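Notes, Module 5: Reading structure tokens.

Key idea: the token line is not a picture. It is a compressed description, and you learn to read it the same way you learned to read a sequence, by spotting repeated patterns. We will look at two proteins. The first is printed below with its tokens.
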Amino acid sequence: MILNPVTPVALLTILRASDVRPNIPPCLANNFYGIFSQQSVFKISDFACFDLLPASVDEGSVVSLHFPEDGPQQLVWIQESSIDNSLRTPEYEVEVADFDAWLVSEKRVAYPDGQTILFEGAEPSPPSLVYRNANSGIVAVADQDAADVLSTRLPRFWKAMPIPASPVSYLPIPSAAVERVRDILVSLRFDALVAGIVNGISLEHMRKDIRYLTNEDGTSGILSRHSFHHGSRIAAEWLKTQFEDAGATCRFMQFLEGFAPNVVCRYAAKTESSNTVLISGHYDSRGSFGMERAPGGNDDGSGTISVLNIARRIKQTGITFRSNVELVAFAGEEQGLLGSKAYARELRGNGANITLMIQADMLAYHAPEEPPQLGLPQFIGTPEVAQLVANVSAIYSPELTVGLTTACCSDHQSFHEQGYPATQVFERTGPIADPMYHNSGDFSDRPGYDLNQVRSISKVQFATLLHAAGFDLPEGVDLEDLERDD
């Protein structure tokens, strides 16, 4: 661990954040700024705090911080996603090199000829590079607006996540919450009614939905679902209408000026209950470097249509729940999980009782010569929830090969940070392999886009919800009726 003892303020990043939970010293807990990819970030001035770190923490970095009074004040974490080596093309490496050169030389990023820039107007002040390693870094920019614009300048497989100006709550998952998930795990058995319900998820509806969201059918007019683009508002209105048609009570949650809203939908428990099971995807998208078009067929149209078609099946079967159920389509994911962070904070502030949360992000890409897969997070999330999802998959979608993925991190992280049991479902065990990741060619009509895999993972997400929330069929409806609905 590198430490300069004369530095008045330092930013500390600790690898494998789980190593410091839950027995974290107060000098760190009171100066926690969030989890970024797989690292916890703390801003500290008392260097005696380092002596209090758990013995399990043997990796980390300490970065000196000094802000001139008239200089950049907003810190932004930048991170390369975990990608398969097949995506490390010479073209991509040039993008990264150009971006690095821009960071250190303050030159403008040159966009390829013919590209349409989403943001127009004065070029923002260049960021100041604070820290850089092989696949991540910290930059300082003028303000939040400049941080948002920075996300449009990144190489295709990189993300930007603003570091908050003030400490945030450091909330380990309560042992009682984990024990509740373990109870579900212990009691998990095959249920023919659950199988009959989830098997009725419609592949054809999924196909129609994704073609609308990407405008492949030519009806929506959506060029992009980027959180700042008007196309994201079209998508939000459409999603809200679809969820409401499926019997949910929905609202828009505005969280930052200029951003599309979260679409928050709810099925209230049939009897009084504070328990809530939440499943989600993010409907915002990102296109190729500097281009306006961002169809987001896989990232994350696939997760969005999973959640939407679960809602359709709830309506079709008429089931009611013994716990509250929320289905959420987040915005602002591509700018640093901003929509889900705002909602998770709101829930924590309201004392919400979340049994578990499952985020669906990128379900559709099926690499050649590989079996259909389900990836679960290796680093960020609650292991017991991931194990529950894996066990449910073995029962209801045995065609999926289940394993861990280093792809990190989606909106489940926002709930994890607020002390809620959470995990993510992903398309692959291993790193990202989709060549259209963060690409303007991310449509559904292309090689490798597998709606059958989406449906299989959606069945797992839905079956986990059913087992965790509990449900009842309408009076007089039985398994034979469900099978006739399929």
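Here is the second protein, with the sequence above and the tokens below, as before.
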Amino acid sequence: MDSCRAERTNVGLIYETSNPDVEKIFHLAIDKANEENEELKLHGVAVAIEPNNAFETSKKLCKMLRQNLVAVFGPSTNLAARHALSICDAKELPFLDTRWDFGTQLPTINLHPHPAKMGVALKDLVSALGWEKFTIIYESGEYLVTVNELLTMYGTTGPTLTLRRYDLDLNGNYRNVLRRIRNSDDDSFVVVGSMETLPEFFKQAQQVGLLTSDYRYIIGNLDWHTMDLEPYQHADSNITGLRLVSPESEQVQEVAKALYESEEPFQNVSCPLTNSMALIYDGIQLLAETYKHVNFRPVQLSCGDNSAWDKGYSVVNYMKSLTLNGLTGAIRFDYEGLRTDFQLEVIELSVSGMQQVGQWSTEGGLQMNRPAPPHTLEPDMRSLMNKSFVVVTAISEPYGMLKETAEMLEGNAQFEGFGIELIDELSKKLGFSYTFYLQPDNKYGGLDPKTGEWNGMLREIIDNRADMGITDLTMTSERESGVDFTIPFMNLGIAILFRKPMKEPPKLFSFMSPFSGEVWLWLGLGYMGVSISMFVLGRMSPAEWDNPYPCIEEPTELENQFSFANCLWFSIGALLQQGSELAPKAFSTRAVAASWWFFTLILVSSYTANLAAFLTVESLVTPINDADDLSKNKGGVNYGAKTGGSTFTFFKDAKYPTYQKMYEFMKDNPEFMTNSNQEGVDRVENSNYAFLMESTTIEYITERRCTLTQVGALLDEKGYGIAMRKNWPYRDVLSQAILELQEQGVLTKMKTKWWKEKRGGGACSDSDDDSGALALEISNLGGVYLVMFVGAFFGIFVSLLEMLLGVKDRSSENKEEPDSDASSLGFANLGGVYLVMFVGSCFASVYGLINGLLSVFWTARENKVNFKDELLDELRFIVQCSGNTKAVKYPKNSGSDSHSHSRGSSKSKGSSLSVDSLPEDHSVAEVQVVKEKRGKK
């Protein structure tokens, strides 16, 4: 125990750079804990991250694990906290969280009051204030969990509850939503949101006139009192909220004074000590209390292995069994390890500042310190049981359709579709009956800018000819100003319907596609360079000059197999992996050949590896990929939308430059607009045209028309809802029923039925699946056949040409006696050859040059001739580009003792003897006879 205590105990903290006070209170809490227990020796290791930067969180936490941590306090942003939690979970390291989170599990200790109990506190507060009708204003979907108790507090037979989301991803502009709230009949609001958006929310609410004496607010954020509330002190609005940290607490005041180094830390209305900061302070004290009773030794951990701290879960379990009084009140956990037993203060903003008007606890509930307004509930008349409604719909697949049957049907029996079935499910659930009828002009409805009157289905509802309207009716701010909607039963967005990408026909020379044009060019240059290198080095290397007549020991001339044509043939044979009858003998030519063979090995392997893909895979070509391409009319694609529909209205009201440009195009080209979605779909199939419509309808169409597809991502987000009259008393009941159908999976099952099963659905599901490899057609290999035919015809042409030239030569030989002089074999001097060789060729060239010079030197020395003259004779012969034979200049001497030595030197050095110096021998005549026979052949 004492040895453990002697070591320093490290505690980690990950905090956002936007909240530096968190680090201050973290170290303050550690100093306080060490002061109270000298044996503790806690040491803080803090790192800062950018908000919601999960990668940075993981990287820095992995570094911290090497420092023998006993616990980690996580960041306050959700994404970063989840990544830190997952790492601590893998390492079984205690993770102390200060966020509200439902999914708390080992090794996490969540010090924040449980959100479910927070919802109970809000419900008790609403009931105590006597609110019978109010609007819930929430930031995003995650905050609906907090108000779940409010949504269910009246069941299906209670006052009207309205839900409004104020953050619609409009860059912090909430004024449109706030104006609609102001124009409604509600004057009581429950607001739930984050501290990142609440200050701007109240600022804009004051701008639109929602912070007056006519309105009442309940704030569902425990940190709202940390805002700068001074601008709203004299607004006369009743603003009530809850808080966990009481500034009147002596412990809180002591910590605040030390933290802010001031005797009066709370000089204005607001309290700067946030809920997260207080929970971190309490977490350190809880950890210190645990350390007094549990003997644990921290270990070094690493993210790169499976190491874990075997004491981590024991520490967490012990911490959850403790009870401690901290800045946030009594800290205790239930049997599930959740903080469900806590106490909150009810506070109100008044002219004199923040005032406590009540107290709420898990066990005692709400206790107000001043008389609560009378709370009475009028008899609820909102039950739908045994009621009958008229529902208007429009023909739009698959939401509303006429049944395909030969029988004569009437009434509701003649309709089917997703929307029809949805109304039927709601009627079964809520007990009402309904009657459908079709909208005469099949228009959904909108506000006519010329007359200012509503039309279509919305007009039917406003004029009380219908109680509800259902089809693929998009919820927009304009429509919501005339009618009310339920919560969306389907979420979607605007997308682009276009034909599927066309398969590009294979190119004639597709077999050349594995290499780029640059590679082919360098291959050709390499081929010519190697061929020239072989030709030059073959002429320079003595080992490549052979006796053409092996039976004659002293030939008059030598022959070289590497003529220029043979060099070209040797190189192409190696490149095509076929080889040739030519075999290099000299080291220099073998070095060039080896480097060329290695080059062709890699090149041919790479070509073969890519060839199959280029022959079998057909490229898909589409002129447009997104809305930007469409706005630029790429590929000459025209586009449009349904006249007067919500899609056209979206582009009309859009501020994004691309969408504005598209709206101008559609306005200036009315011929591309359609009167129905079906007309637009037909245009897409039959012309170079793209149609803008809802993504769910596109999904339905592409399940049946296999030549069409959705292009690009969604251009916006919206939903379909059931329309009804303004302030209709049954809206909340229907919304709750739709929410229950979503949770039960009924709506998902219905969508699968009408999208993928009914009316030909699923026809295109397997259209793109190819089973097995596809057979290659002539279009894929046409270029190969063309090369073969061209080569064959070229060979025939060359053969005929050779035959004619041979006939001409033979006829000439019969008229003129051939010149037997050796000089008749020469050609004009080429003026030098530029050598293009690879690395191997360069080395071989140096070797061949040295070998040739040594050969000339030894020949000149042995035959006592001038080296310069001998070298010039050799160079003059080398620069000749034709002829594979050369005369022997220095014959062997058979009459002296040095005969054998001279003979051996001649063979080893590759020197030649002069024909004139040879004695007369019958072998010469034999050679001449052999040559004449070869010429005749």
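Summary for the second protein:
- The longest strand covers residues 353-361.
- The chain is about 40% helix and 15% strand.
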